[in-house]
Amino acid sequence: MLVRFAGRSGGEGLGGRYWQTLTQETMNDVVKAALDGGVDWFDTAESYGAGRSERALAEALQAADRENGSVVVATKWLPIMRRASSILRTIDDRLANLSPYSIDLHQIHIGIGSLSRKKAQVEAMAELAAAGRIRAVGVSNFSARAMRLTSRVLARHGLPLASNQVRYSLLDRRIETNGVLAAARELGATIIAYSPLAQGLLSGKFHDDPERVKQLSGPRRMLRAFRPRGLRRSAPVVAELKAVAAVHDATPAQVALRWLVQAQGDVVVAIPGASKVEQAQENAAVLDFELTEKEVQALDRVSQPFR
Fold this sequence. Notes:
By secondary structure, this protein is α/β, with parallel strands linked by helices.
């Protein structure tokens, strides 16, 4: 399992307008808690605070006395209104922000919005890999067709497509029906599931107290899933999560994460975020138990409307 190090950005960039801002001290504590729990993959991006999140992650890892190579670090290049050549121009910024840590996985952040074709973007990534500046190439929010194109381009350079980072949870199972999951299996790529708790809905806290939605900042409170009708639609999934959680002395969120990393075998890894030490510890503890096949199937059945 990975930790998504996003949105801790001082109010700047894409994440800065969506997630709360944390102090560096809090970020250090969260990262240490994740490491102590056995998590050693961290994902960030240049768009999270215009590089601030990358720098904060590097500082937190150093505060935890982690050497380069002892953790896996992933980041992303944002293609919107940029040409593929900016992948090569901005790599020095990525490396400087994350120093002294290497970039183990560099990802194209989204499949739309670039001024260059995907082939050119992937070629630029392959050039970085050939130069030893990154270790692997991944994508994010790519369709099954775009995944196959990316794989073909990388294969000409002797490289595999490492991953596709996409939204995936019990409340958003579209990758199972739109071909993305099947493409990952076919290509030997990993699905990195972001928003694995459906932005907190699968914790059950908003179902227990719908008034909490009013306390949300940013655009989340406007999403349909957080409105009364949306909460009613997802209530059966949360109820089943609670029932399974009681058996395992776990939380609904932990069961939701466990389903993700278990139901599809080794193809899927979850990437939950954490803004508190307790959340990082809770996320890491998902590695300590397994669901029965009957429990996996029960969660599958109740979440079928979200495929």
